[in-house]
Amino acid sequence: MTTSLDIKLMNITASVLLLVFGLLSLGALAAWVFQNPVFALRGITVSGDVSHNNALTLRAIVAPRLSGTFLSLDMAAARRAFESVPWVRSALVRREFPNRLQVTLQEHQAVAYWGAEGDSTLVNSFGEVFEANTGEVEQDSLPRLSGSPEQAAQVLAMYRAVQPLFEHLDLNVDQLELTGRGSWRAELDSGAVVELGRGSEDEVVARVQPFLNTLTQVTSRYSRTAAALQSADLRHEQGYALRLRGVSTVVAGAQALKK
Question: Could you tell me if 161 and 236 lie in one domain?
Fold first, then answer.
C-alpha cells in the first residue's frame, strides 16, 4: 500500500510540475508575441468628423501618447487620448490586424457660446459644455448661454423653446441666462433685456407668448415697432412691464390691453 501511495504522489507531483511548466511556457510565448516587432503599431487610420482636426495632425498629437504593441495597447487609454484633443467629442478605436488602428471620430457641433464674453467654452448640440478655440467656430453668429455648467442642457432647451417665438417679430435671443436664483433673463440682438421669470419651459413659454402677441399693439400706440423695445419684465402675475426707446416707462398688463 505504501508503494502504491508513493506512486500516486509521484504521478500527482509530475502532473502539477507539467501544468506549471505548461503555464510558464504559455506565459513566455504570450510575452514574446506581445512584444514581437511584427505587431508594433504601423499606422492609424482616422475617419468620421475631422472638420477641426485633420488626420495628420491627430496622429501627430496622439501617437506619442500610445504605448504598447497592436496586441498590448490599452484601448481605453487610446480612446481617452483621442477624446482629449480639442473639438473631439467621442472616439471609437478598433484594432485592424495585424498592426494598425482604425479610429472613428465624432466632433462637437457648436450651437452656442457658454459663459462670459471671452471664455473659451462652447455648448454642443447635446447640451454639453466643452472647451475649444472659439475662433474656429464656423457659424457667423451663435447665441451666448450661461448658468451652471451642469445646467447647460436645460439652458439650451429653453433657448430652443423661446427663440422661435421671438423670431416671429424679427427679434432674436442673443443671450440667455439662468441666474443663480433660478430666474431666466434674455438679451435680444437689439440690446433689449427681457426678464422671463422662473419656471419650466412650458411656464416660461406661457408668459412669453402673450407678451409677444400684444407687443406690437403696445408699441404701435407710440408709433414704434417691436425693435424699439428696451426692456421688459414678464414676472408680473397679470401682465408685464416694458420700456421703449424714446418713450417714458410704460406699464402694460393683459387687463389693460383689453380696455
Answer: yes
